[in-house]
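Two records follow; treat each independently.
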Amino acid sequence: MTGSPVTVSVKWKKEIFTDIQIDPDETPQVFKSQLWTLTGVPPERQTIIGFKGGKLKDDAEWSALGLRPNMKLMLLGTPDESRLAPPAELPKVRNDLDVDADDENYQPPVAGPPGLLNLGNTCYMNSTIQCLNAVRPLVKSLTTYTGRPDAMNPAEKLAAGLREVFGRLKATDIASINPIRFLAVLRQVNPQFAERNNRGIFMQQDAEECWGEILSRLSTALKRNGEENQVDNLFAIKMRGEDKCDESEERINRQETVRALKCHISKSVNHLPQGIKEGLEEKIEKQSDALERSATWTRTNRIDTLPPFLVVQFVRFFWKPTEGVKAKILRNVSFPVVLDVFDFCTSELQEKLRAKRDAVRALESSSETTNTGISDDDEIVPAETGNYELCAVLTHQGRAADSGHYVAWVKDSGSKWYKFDDDKVSIQTEEDVKKLSGGGDWHMAYMCLYRAKNTV
């Protein structure tokens, strides 16, 4: 069902809420979020009566519910005092104690770019969005994307939803926005993100899985839209590898494309480059045709092409079957502000990078000014030296992937860092960011986002 918003009224206890608009292009979850805002009754506690067929279900189609203007509905349910309902936008409250309180143009101070309201265990999504918003060429590409939010294709619908969120994050006069529309689309596209616990509350999810889902859908949507695959243009890492059997002479050459490097964390890993090296050189078990049995192989990977934006994931979580949870490795692993991946590249790529690195060194040793390659955030900077500059960190605080709290730490176009703790935004220093290396229960890096930096 598509069309203009329909106005209804809802009675809850002794209150009647009039002029509530239902958008037929959105899911019932969005309508339930509106009621949560008004009443404090979270969606899982809501029983809405008045539609054809009985109670309103999350997956119901408006066309089958007899939705019409001026309908009178009834809401049953009790508020959850421990969970604050998300307002449509953060209200601009005047403080009577401020010296500017009598100024009708007074606006509350804003620490930086807008935050995102937590709609109940959605920090994994909020932190992912804030980090991806730092990839300005991706934001620019979505600005010109023509897909519709009511598209039948799930990837196109999610891309249109993210375009709307990115657009609203450009605001400079509000403290936070409500991402309920994008959340509804994300849960519709991938029901994993709509999982509830045994109390009916939406569960915490893994931010890395959310990151991967968003990029995968964006890749499909942009290609369907007739554009080149901007996602792979920005993030794709082409790898060349070899599997060598330790017990025979078998060798198998491999090629694959990934969108992130893995930082493995063992007892010998103290720094990010060490973890990346372990991730590129590992022992695996696989079938040997020569031995006609399973054998140990040495798998070696090298980077064959570098992307403008490099994502590194810390492999901090592992499955504990006895407890049925993803447990966390708390080890302190430092990460550099400038990451050099030259040593992880194929010899052919190293030759290409070496020529540029030598040229840059020659310029830097002279009086000429070198171009860092990061002056225009909206433009794609090719990775020509193998050096990258840190521009965002997604952290996790807690002991398990499906619990705890995710936060985004993002650098602006200058040298200022912002901490996006859902709707709470604060200014940080580079030294604050360096402390996110782990070793305890404080926020620790889970994903690092680097941007090509063509200096050495």
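The next record belongs to a different protein.
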Amino acid sequence: MEIQRELQRMGQGDHLCLVYENPEEQWGAVIPYMAEGLARNEACLYVIDDRALDEVRQAFIARGVDIDAAVRSGQFVFATKREAYLASGSFEPRGMISFLEKTVQEAAAAGRTGFRVTGEMTWALGEGCGCHQLIEYEALLNNFFPGSRASAICQYNRKRFSADMIRDVLRTHPVAILGNQVCPNLYYETPAMVLGQGSTEQRVDWMIQQLQRFRGAERKLERAVQARDEFLSVASHELNTPLTSLKLQVQSLTRTLARGDGASLSREKVTSIIDRTDRQLRRLSRLVSDLLDVSRIHAHKMTLEREHMDLRELVDDVVDRVSGEFTHMGVRLDVAPGAHVVGFWDRSRLEQVLINLLTNALKYGAGKPVRVEVAADGTRVSLSVKDQGVGLREEDRARIFERFERAISASEASGLGLGLYIAREIVQAHGGDISVESRLGEGSTFTVSLPLGARA
């Protein structure tokens, strides 16, 4: 379903409202959202009020979520309004923010990659709950979530809440789920505006910014269409290049054999042909693998097979495997001394990340030495690849992690512009992040930061 794909794109820092009219709309949004949190190894909290616990539990089970196992493991917790929103006897917005901050810290200490919460907001309809402060709380959440490792869906039953309340709910959520659609919210207002702290001048500025933001979204869509068309052209060329090389080699061998001149194929010549063929086949394999991975990522079907593994051993293994390519190009590849670091990750996917970073360094490193380093600080580990090559302009640093993007034109370097995008998606699926420090003409350092992961 489209809503499931849209919800899978939601991540840490997001604050959504769900305005629903029936159970199908409620469960159709909430369950995929929470199931995605379980898949990402996030701590999950469901605050129950309008529904009975067993009703919610059965809804998860009916949609294929082993909620009982998640509860037993401690990853998923059900709470009542008295245990969350009204823990102090009445609702207090800043107290609830403190509760969320503490919960996020506890999730990180438990090895979780983040925290997501959803709550049935019908508790606010009760008398004496301090619900007049609800909209203040929703506004304050928009200061709390951005930049945090947390996200939320606030559930509002349209049949239970007044039109005035639904209006204010829409004012306080950057993203709204309506029916089976996830909608960027044109009517969202900043916390200061909602709380009456902004001037008329600030409201005018906000209105202008909204218009500019939506025009920016249109331009982004136009660029995406253009990038797609450019990608199809580049992909055709990249796939055709090794195929042409293979075709020429086969034709040459065919002609030699047709002349009955097989004796001219010395051992050295055959070895050279096999080496060239192997390089072209590996190039084709990488291109096809990248295309398949992009398809999986876009369909949210990329999965992680986590295991306890030593990142330093992985680095040594990958460096040993790619050293031949570096030697062939006359580039020195070093690994900095360091301790072994054991974490809970997907080995094959992290191999893919490192290979992509090393391939990038070989391609843009201007033939100068490349260095790999692993370091840990107790709760997280960093993996960095440093080159001394062409470097990046400041405006290109974020763009190069997007699909089909590259810092230089396709005519200057081969590739589909997918390696860094795939690396970013893999790292983020582990609850980590990837960044680059670079100056034009002075090289680049790509750094992957990962949580050590949940303990088995």
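Discussion point: The longest helix spans residues 200-258. How would you locate this feature using only the token line?
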